[in-house]
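Appendix B. One record, verbatim.
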Amino acid sequence: MKLAFSTLGVPGLPLDDVLALATAHGYHGVELRAHPEEPVHPGLDREQRADVAARFKKAGVEVLGVAGYARVAAPGEDGPVLDEVRALVDLARDLGAPYVRVFPGGGDEQGPEEADATAARRLGVAAEYAADRGVRVLVETHDSHRTGAAASRILGVVGHRNVGALWDVMHTWLGGEQPMVSYAALSPYLGYVQVKDIAGPDDTVPLPLGDGVLPLAECVEVLSREGWDGWLCWEYEARWYPSAAPLPGILGGGREHVARLLNESA
């Protein structure tokens, strides 16, 4: 498995500094938070996108994915949501990233069946657009569809290779799902896995990997046992928790912790 980290953990940090952290601490890739607050977002022009791709190539670091905020199950018209997804797909293509992250975002205004149908309809359209550009759109286990079982209800209907799942291990755990159950539900669709750690269900301030209660060892063991060899991405939510320890100081320890888990599960 290869290891990446998300720029959500270093909000607003210049790209060259992000790449320096990745190379200094042995990370193979970076997940880019695609938001106007960040150096990389859909508003970049063609020349700026080419510059970003060139910087990653020079550093020997991969762009794992573009983490967007489109909510594919949200109530409302399809058009604005599809426009947002297409813009993220175009950005990923231009950067050489294989994945785009989207949220379910079903909300409370509709029932689960309606949210599932809305998401599947939109993702079915987005799948063809993404396929033409060599990108996969991944629905994160999050908010209205935080478990693998819930996400798979959407993905099974879509049935297209260019739409898949991003397994956020915190949300499946908060949803009461065991790692083996999550993997079984998501494995036909799995793009990559987001790892993190927290103190508990009522305290989600990000912690260094291994310092909290999330079942990271079980997740890695399941992935290893099943022969999965994709990406693990550390999503350290510093943007939402200013009191959290700065990510640069704990990146090395995080990589070492994941390496230990991989060795123990081999």
